[in-house]
Amino acid sequence: MAHQQDFDLALDTSWFTKEPPAFPLPSMKALGPCTSTYDWTWEQDPTDTTKTLICAVLWTDTKAVTKVRVTWKRSNPMGTVKAEQKHYPTPPPVSAENLDKAHKRYGENIALWAESSVGTRVGDGECWTFVHHALADLAESYRQYGEEPPLVSQGRTHGQPILTLTAPSVGTNGGLLQLADVRRGDILELTSAHFQIITEEAPQHVPGAWGTWKKGAGEKNVRLNHHTAIVVGVKGDVVKVVEQNGCVPGGVGKTRYDLGGGGMKEGKVVVFRVIGETMGGGGRLTAKWEDE
Fold first, then answer.
1. Which residues, including other chains, have CB under 8 Å from residue 36's CB and lie 6 or more apart?
2. Using CA atoms in the order 233, 239, 245, 247, what is the torsion angle rounded to 10 degrees?
3. Rounded-to-integer distance, Cα 243 and Cα 253, Å
4. Could you give the C-alpha distances from 29 to 7, 32, 34, 38, in angstroms and in order?
5. Is 118 helix (H, G, I), strand (E, B) or coil?
6. What is the mean pLDDT of the chain?
7. Residue 82 burial by Cβ neighbours in a 10 Å radius (0-12, 13-18, 19+)
8. Which of 1, 72, 234, 283 would bridge with 77, disulfide CB 3.0–4.6 Å?
9. Cα 95 from Cα 188, distance rounded (Å)
10. What average pLDDT does the segment 257-265 reach?
11. pLDDT tens digits for 150-163?
12. Quick count: other Cβ atoms within 10 Å of Cβ 28?
């Protein structure tokens, strides 16, 4: 669904004149988690400069989008400001056929990128950064070869959700990974999750302040408030993942999560299939005003 009514843009606060602009507005953030982008243009004439700001906000839970265009004269912003809005509804779900095509196009390359990073630190060492870098790096490679790039993470949305699991739940989640066709290269997004996990391996040394880690196997309780990981294997109810700042604090390592009744004690897991930028009517969020 989309926000059908125009927002109060609070133009009297001059938020649009700030660099960067104070966007999204509080009324937009109140609707849920979102991400945004913006772009400036200006036109100079003999007496003044007309500025135009285009902002776009995407609600990551629904993929609905609102765009705002604001214009004003530099010499008198409050006396000349004008604004308009456009609202775009949630795009339809990606078809099973296109999800299969997306996996064949991107899945293996995502998993290989993740596996090649084990033992390193990516960006600031956070879990989300690791996944974002994976998709952004691959997107650039696909563009260089003239192919459609994968859609880079929009907040904590990483393409099309294909499975949502919660625990504790009545019965078991057994068999749902196969039913949802979770595959190598898909993305896990965990919220308030508590697992008993089996540690497969950790690098002998991770550059930086976190020192030396010895290889080995074992079981431990792990609590994850918000965590993101890349699936590199599926067997039964267990997913093998590569993650950052999980089993290896501040670095990239491998572990397994049991998403059935045995290992997942509480929390929520959403599995995403990475899709192309134009799949499903969505796409990369841009600050472009589409005239109809």
1. 23, 24, 55, 56, 57, 58, 285
2. -100
3. 6
4. 11, 6, 7, 16
5. coil
6. 85
7. exposed
8. 72
9. 20
10. 77
11. 999 888 889 999 99
12. 19
Domain segments of the chain as ranges: 11-91, 96-273
**140: phi then psi, degrees, rounded to nearest 5:** -65, -40
- 3-class DSSP assignment, residue 171: coil
Asked if residues 246 and 224 have their Cβ atoms less than 8 Å apart, the reply is yes
Alpha-carbon distance of 129 to 225, in angstroms, equals 16
List 223's β-bridge partners, or say none.
Answer: 194
Cα dihedral 163→167→170→173 (10° resolution)? 40
Residue 167: per-residue pLDDT: 79
Encoding tokens for residue 80? 């000349």
Residue 81 has pLDDT above 80, yes or no: yes
pTM comes to 0.74
Q: Token pair of 114, please?
A: 């993740």
What whole-number distance in Å separates Cα of residue 134 and Cα of residue 122? Answer: 9
79 within 8 A of 155, measured Cβ to Cβ:
no
Which stretch of DSSP H or E encloses residue 101?
helix 96-102
Q: Do 2 and 282 form a contact (C-beta atoms < 8 A)?
A: no
N-terminal to C-terminal alpha carbon distance within the chain: 21
Q: Tokens for 257, please give them.
A: 């999560």
Pinpoint the alpha helices (H) of 108-225: 108-116, 127-144, 176-179
The whole-number pLDDT of residue 260 equals 76
- Token couple for 64: 């609905």
Burial class (CB in 10 A: 0-12, 13-18, 19+), 265: middle
Phi then psi dihedrals of residue 10, to 5 deg: 50, 50
At 135 the three-state DSSP class reads helix
pLDDT in tens, 6-53: 999 999 999 999 999 999 999 999 998 888 899 999 998 889 999 999
CA angle 16, 21, 27 (to 5 degrees): 80
